[in-house]
């Protein structure tokens, strides 16, 4: 068997660079040390007033300079920091030798900017949509308007790293980061590129986002102490905690990576996705789309469920998501799932939304590299309806394969399988 081809004869996709930024710190080393030590990056929000808000905590990244109230600027800074680390680790210099696939938040304009636009457009009282467009296109608002166009962040990152072709911007809700990796894998397998820079980034912790998620009853309201709020799989879980950050992976055709003497950090063995049109925010009650996404990832990897050593859970800490994810895993893995270590890093960094799938891909690869499964914090009251082996302190076990789940609002389900070696 050709070691640079998978069981289906496709180019094997190797990971040669990883970069991470979360509320735990900047860089792989700091994040991994804090994560496996069970430290929390969730804290009281200080970047804007939170009086009157039901949720006043988040896993914000407060150590990277940018206007904290402009999500695209934060997203760009996080992405740049993560990509810098990943590209450097891959040993690449000059223009990046492949394409950019980037998960970015949906375009959101905060109310202060909307008001400024309306004031600029207001001439005779009422403001029409055409008035707003003219104001946005004016010289005064030209730079500001460009900042909020979907795709601008990816364009700037593409210019910064010299990626080839038109950058791909995507947003598939909370599975976006995993989708970016999937697109990079598929492009390499098709022979369209030999390398891909895959990034998930999100800097969306702002008052409007907190209010919107609160109206959906999706956020935890257990503000004190902040580090105890996120409780994936626990019986007393009451919602997720917002987080932010970015992760970047450098993917390469394994043959190319070996030829240039690159250090291979692991492989993306399988990708699976399944859409769920049941509801804008809820999962199908039979769990069918989640089950199908997990099975598709395993089939794509050419692996039997028994080959998975640990599961990096989506694990948001919302009552419904955790129940549905457990149902899906138990359906695929059967009784064995009760003894497969499963963990959710959202208990420490919060839910990084668009970035989550990429951040958790990075942590999955580090789990393989170190043979250590990070803990899930705040699992003091197990849910008897979720009979899983939830890891509560970092566990040293042999790990050669990881299933990483990402399930998003709107029925966006993406699962990835990572391995130390070809399947």
List the helices and strands and how they pair.
Layout: E1 13-22, E2 25-26, H1 28-36, E3 43-44, E4 57-58, H2 71-89, E5 99-103, H3 111-121, H4 129-137, H5 142-147, H6 152-161, E6 168-170, H7 176-189, E7 195-202, H8 207-215, E8 245-253, H9 254-259, E9 266-275, H10 288-301, E10 310-312, H11 319-333, E11 341-343, H12 346-349, H13 356-370, E12 372-373, E13 389-390, E14 395-396, E15 401-408, E16 412-419
Parallel strand pairs: 5-6, 5-7, 10-11, 10-15, 11-13
Antiparallel strand pairs: 1-2, 1-8, 1-9, 3-4, 7-8, 9-16, 12-14, 15-16
Helix pairs in contact: 2-6, 3-4, 7-13, 10-11
How would you describe this structure to a colleague?
With 423 residues, the chain is an alpha/beta fold. The chain is 33% helix and 19% strand. The chain folds into 2 domains: 13-108 and 149-419, Thiolase/Chalcone synthase (Peroxisomal Thiolase, Chain A, domain 1), CATH 3.40.47; 111-147, no CATH class. The chain has helices spanning 28-36, 71-89, 111-121, 129-137, 142-147, 152-161, 176-189, 207-215, 254-259, 288-301, 319-333, 346-349, 356-370, and strands at residues 13-22, 25-26, 43-44, 57-58, 99-103, 168-170, 195-202, 245-253, 266-275, 310-312, 341-343, 372-373, 389-390, 395-396, 401-408, 412-419. Helix 10 packs across helix 11. It is globular and about 70 Å long. One of its GO terms (molecular function) is 3-oxoacyl-[acyl-carrier-protein] synthase activity. Pathway: Lipid metabolism; fatty acid biosynthesis.
